[in-house]
Amino acid sequence: MSAEYPDDLLYTREHEWARVDGTRAVIGITRFAVEQLGDITQVDLPKEGDSVKKDEVFGTVESVKAVSDLFAPLSGKVLKVNDPLKDSPEYVNDDCYDEGWMVEIELSVESEKAGLMSAKQYKEFLEESA
User: Fold this and answer.
1) Domain count within the chain
2) Distance between CA 11 and CA 31 in Å, rounded?
């Protein structure tokens, strides 16, 4: 199960993850979210230079089942967007932690990391929610 929820990531109750490296964070959705959504058909993300705010919507993921909002796990300025997702949203299904990442941000409030869950805490949260 550890491969499904890598230990080097931080997680939210809305099933997003953040890979924090210094003052930068790469953000995506978890394997659990991918499984709930089914086949992802479209991803709408912010533009480079946009700001995202913790717990606020920063984009959407559309699947054969539904359209779901993406909630920012941390606040910051968007440095990079995973542009290949526009033409190949299936990367999220195939590899949600590497090729399927969504945005990279420059953190504006580093202390927000303390509010995110470790992989162990996230797995416990999923088990409690089941």
Assistant:
1) 1
2) 11
Are 57 and 67 within 8 A, CB to CB? no
Nearest to 27 by CA among 67, 50, 88: 50
Span 48-65, pLDDT tens digits: 999 999 999 999 999 998
Minimal CA–CA distance to 43: which of 56, 34, 54, 31? 34
Q: Let me know if residue 3 belongs to a domain.
A: no
Per the CB < 8 A criterion, the answer to whether 60 and 70 are in contact is yes
pTM: 0.95
- Per the domain annotation, does 77 fall within a domain? yes
Residue ranges of the chain with per-residue pLDDT less than 70: 1-3
Whether residue 128 lies inside any domain: the answer is: no
Closest listed residue to residue 12, CA positions, set 25, 26, 29: 29
